[in-house]
Amino acid sequence: MAFSNPEADDGEVLSEINMIPLIDVMLVLLIVFIITVPVMKHSVNVNLPQAATEANPDKPETVRLSVDAQGQYHWNDRVVSDEELTARLQAAAQQTPQPDLHIRGDKSVRYERVAQAMAAAQRAGVRKLAFVTEP
């Protein structure tokens, strides 16, 4: 293959495609595939653990305890007295799984009433307690 000399340029353009680099790349790819295909067919035997197929436990109910502006307790929107609240909290603490207790306090109620509800829940053994607020 002859290259044109820039000093003796007769204006002729080289119109041949040089195939040598393309052939070199193809041969390298062929060798790579010849080597890797047998490696891919061999596999390693691995003893995988077996998953147990059991049902997900049901999520316990959520108890909504509200304290209104007058300081009355509402257990899931029903008015309850202080004694009845203690009895219901003890019954809820005995359930398996234990229900979540969400406390809502009116912004004008004395914090003492909310603190009494929290103390009653702690004495009863309720472990999941949350406060509900508005953004």
- The beta-strand count equals 5
Strand arrangement in the largest pleated sheet: 3-2-1-4-5
Task: Indicate the mean pLDDT.
Answer: 85
Helix content: 25-40%
Structural class: alpha/beta
CATH class of one domain: Alpha Beta
Do you know the CATH architecture of one domain? 2-Layer Sandwich
Give me the CATH fold name of one domain: Nucleotidyltransferase, domain 5
Q: Distance between termini?
A: 81 Å
* Tally of separate helices: 3
Report the C-alpha radius of gyration, rounded.
40 Å
Element-level helix/strand string: HEEEHEHE
So what's the overall shape?
Answer: elongated
Q: Which residues sit in consecutive blocks of at least 5 with pLDDT less than 50?
A: none
Main β sheet profile: 5 strands, mixed
Beta-strand proportion: 15-25%
SSE map:
Layout: H1 20-41, E1 62-67, E2 73-75, E3 78-80, H2 82-94, E4 100-105, H3 111-124, E5 129-131
Parallel strand pairs: 1-4, 4-5
Antiparallel strand pairs: 1-2, 2-3
Helix pairs in contact: 2-3
What does this structure look like?
The chain has 135 residues and is α/β, with parallel strands linked by helices. The protein has a domain at 62-131: 2-Layer Sandwich (Nucleotidyltransferase, domain 5). Helix content is 36%, strand content 16%. Strands 3-2-1-4-5 form a five-stranded mixed sheet. It is elongated. The mean pLDDT is 85.
Looking at this protein, list some descriptive labels.
135 residues, Nucleotidyltransferase, domain 5, 16% strand, alpha/beta, five-stranded mixed β-sheet, elongated
Short summary:
The protein is an alpha/beta fold and 135 residues long. Helix content is 36%, strand content 16%.
